[in-house]
Write a structure and sequence with these properties.
alpha+beta, 3 helices
């Protein structure tokens, strides 16, 4: 069931952009503000803006009627593994299939780049995200990397078929 006033799935234009772009920074700021309302600062995990693209990161923004409404990113971990980061949809467009479109775009990009597994971390309060990842074929895994000591972290992985 859709939230009141929302009318079904919309199609978005997902584009690769610089993490330094105004659209990316605005969406990341909204995400961070929302997460700070649910988690202590020490439970939040951000992105290194300075080294992001140099280290092979990919950042995307989803646009609807020219307006930036969602974002997501990929951060390489190894030759085989890439991490999904900074998934966010503005509140006014949630429940309309936008996150699934961003996820599909990023999965396709990860495959194109030759990664074999996508890993991700989400917080224990992110019920919609947990539902999206579970419904999209992700399996819960042990915490990895910087999330190993995170009491609020839930980690998932998805192996890509060869």
């Amino acid at each position: 069931m859709l939230p009141v006033g929302r009318t079904g799935v919309i199609t978005v234009d997902v584009r690769e952009v610089s993490i330094h772009s105004d659209d990316a920074r605005a969406l990341i700021a909204l995400l961070d503000r929302e997460l700070l309302g649910e988690y202590a600062p020490e439970d939040m995990h951000t992105v290194d803006f300075e080294g992001f693209h140099r280290d092979g990161g990919v950042f995307v923004v989803a646009y609807h009627s020219g307006t930036p409404i969602a974002c997501g990113a990929l951060r390489p971990i190894s030759d085989a593994d890439v991490e999904l980061k900074r998934m966010y949809v503005v509140d006014s467009h949630r429940g309309r299939g936008v996150s699934r479109q961003v996820l599909t775009f990023l999965e396709s990009k990860a495959r194109q780049l030759g990664f074999r597994r996508l890993l991700l971390e989400t917080g224990d309060q992110q019920e919609a995200a947990i539902g999206l990842y579970s419904a999209s074929g992700y399996e819960q895994v042990e915490a990895f990397g910087e999330y190993m000591n995170g009491s609020r972290s839930i980690c998932f992985a998805k192996e890509f078929q060869s």
